[in-house]
Amino acid sequence: MKTSKDPNYCQRVTADDGALGEQYLREFQDNEKTIPTILTTSQKLSTGVDARNIRNIVLMRPINSMIEFKQIIGRGTRLYDGKDYFTIYDFVKAHHHFSDPEWDGEPIEPEPEQPVPPPSPKGLSEPPGTGFGPTARPQRIKVELADGKARTIQHMMATSFWHPDGTPMSAQQFLEMLFGALPEFFKDEAELRALWSAPDTRARLLQGLAEKGFGKDQMAEMQRVIDAEKSDLFDVLAHVAYALPTLTREERAAKAKVEISTHFNSKQQVFLAFVLSHYVRVGVEELDREKLRPLLLLKYHNAIADAVADLGRPEEIGNVFAGFQKYLYIRKRPDSARPLLSLGVLSNSNRIHRRLDRLSCGLLTY
How would you class 175 by CB atoms within 10 Å of its CB: exposed for 0-12, middle for 13-18, buried for 19 or more? Predict the structure, then answer.
C-alpha cells in the first residue's frame, strides 16, 4: 500500500475553496507534478476539467443524470502516454447507466462485408471505403469451471464484486470463487433442494453465504450476470454449482400450483396463489417466515380472525406456508420415468387393448 507524509497528497476542491482550490486543481492537472495525487470533489468531474492522467475515479454519491455520468466517465477516457486503461470504483451502483440505451444508443447491426478488390497491377492503394465493416462486440462469454462444464455470463466492463481487501474483481472471478465455496454448504443437488425448500434452512444457508462474502447484493448482481433476474436465487446457486438451466419464478409458480391443487383445500389454495403472486413479482424473500404475517394482513385486509377462520390455527397456517414451498423446488421427473400408459385417461377397454398390443413386451412402467 502506498503511503505519503505530504499534507497535500489528498485535497478537496469545491466551489467554496476559492483560489486555493483552483491552485490545487491546476497542480493536479500538471502531469509533471505528483502532488496532489488525490482530489475529492462534488461537481468538478462533471465540468470541463482536462486532467489527462486520471487513472482512478471513485463514485461515492448517486448520479441520476446520464449527461453528468457521461461527463464523469469522460474524465477518465483522456489519453496519456503509458495510460492504457482507467478504473471506476463504484459504491452507488452508477454502473447501471452503462446498460441504459442512452449511454451509447441501441446496438448497431454489423454492416455487410464488402469484397476486397485485388491489388492494382500498378501497385496503387485501395480506394477509400473498401474492406470489412465493423463487427458487433460480444455480449456474452462462456466460463469453464473446475467441473468441466461451461457457464454463460454477460460480458461486463463494470463490476460490483469486491475482494475481502477492497480491490475489485471481475464477474468471472466472483463466479469462480462462488463455485469453489458452495461445496462447504451442500454436498449435492438434492441437499441444495432440501435446504432451499424450507424457510428456516434457506435462511441459515443465505446467512452462511453472506458471512463468506456472498451476500444479498452480490447474489442479486450474479442474477443479472447470468441473465436470471426473473429467476429464484436457487437458480443462481444450482446453475453455478451444477450448470443446471434456470427457470423463471413464474415457471416455478406454475409448476407448484399443480401440486398445491392436490395437497391443499380450496381456501388454502387461494391464499397460496396470493403468496405465489408476490413471489413471482418480488422474489424468494417473500417466502421468508417473517413475511407470513404481512401477507396475511394484506390478503385479509388486516383481519387476522378472518385468516384463522379460513386457514386454521396459527400453527396450521405456518405449516401450510412453509410446507408448500418444497413444490417450487421439486426436481422435475425425466421423461424416461413417466408412465408409458395412463389407464385412467382411456375409458374404452378396446382402446386399452390396442395400446397394449403395440407395446413390445406388454410391460408398463410406473
Answer: buried
Cell, residue 169? 474483481
* Burial classification of residue 253, based on how many CB atoms lie within 10 Å of its CB (0-12 exposed, 13-18 middle, 19 or more buried): buried
Give the SS3 label for residue 140.
strand
Residue of 18 and 105 predicted with greater confidence: 18
Q: Rounded to an integer, what distance in angstroms lies between the CA atom of residue 45 and that of residue 39?
A: 10
Q: How confident is the model at residue 342 (pLDDT cuts 50, 70, 90)?
A: very low
- Half-sphere exposure at residue 116, Cβ-oriented, CA atoms within 13 angstroms: 6
Residue 266 Cα to chain centre, angstroms: 36
Can you spell out the DSSP letters for 6-55? Answer: -TTSEEE--GGGHHHHHHHHHHHH-TT--SS-EEE-SSGGGTT---TT--
Which sequence spans correspond to the domains of the chain?
170-242, 249-329, 336-366
Distances in whole angstroms, Cα of residue 314 to Cα of each of 176, 225, 273, 292, 293: 43, 40, 19, 10, 10
Distance separating alpha carbons of residues 158 and 154, to the nearest angstrom: 11
Cα within 13 Å of Cα(354), Cβ side: 6
| Max avg pLDDT among 34-48, 77-91, 346-360 | 77-91
Residue 364 near residue 355, CB atoms below 8 Å: no
- Our measurement of the distance from residue 76's CA atom to the centroid of its chain's CA atoms, rounded to an integer in Å, reads 27
Residue type, 359: L
Q: Measured between alpha carbons, how far is residue 165 from residues 1, 37, 178, 213 in Å?
A: 11, 22, 17, 11
